[in-house]
Amino acid sequence: MDALHTAGIRFAEALQSGPPWLEKFWISVTSLADPKSVFTICFPLAYFLNRKVGLSVLWIGLLSEWLNVVLKWFLFGERPFWWVHESGLASKEQVTLRQFPVSCETGPGSPSGHCMITGAALWPLVTSLTALASRYSRSPVVKLLPFSAYLLLQLAVGLSRVFILAHFPHQVIGGILAGAALGWRLESHPLTAHTPRFFVATSLVLLLSSLALHSLIRTAGIDIDW
Q1: Which one is catalytic: 5, 114, 194, 214?
Q2: Residue 167 annotated in active site
């Protein structure tokens, strides 16, 4: 893992050595793609366009948020900003990295929540826009636009997380793949088939199970907030 982490640090160095104007771009991307935006921006917009799609964005965003936390409890994952000093790399080799106001994120880092939650929640919106494009246009370019935008957004979010030293590249890749897989799997289950009681019960199960799992991990002597 040390070799993988070191490679990630070198990649972050290469990103940070880019043109000065890119700094503001990466920081803007990582701020706009915060998981909270799924609930404050993406859900209202999707709901305005289509009620069913909006509810899917909200529900998948909730489930992916919960799953991301649970995965981090089991996978842990170092944060580049802290690892470069804790590993001793900064004292052994020359490391040229810059810190930003959003760099000092704490807690486990694998997989990237920004990539996973955003990728999963936007999946139903992307598939809906793709179906809409296919209905009104026969052009393959137009049909591929929604997914192309989705991929470019995920790439930009991932690079921004590496740029600010919040995640290593492999954590970003894991988040992107997990988000796409989760979005694809959940999007195939229509929410209209469920009653409000189902959503209330599921939410309570998620809450209680996470609290119970957290207690079990702490009882086992594992410090998940190391």
Answers
A1: 114
A2: yes
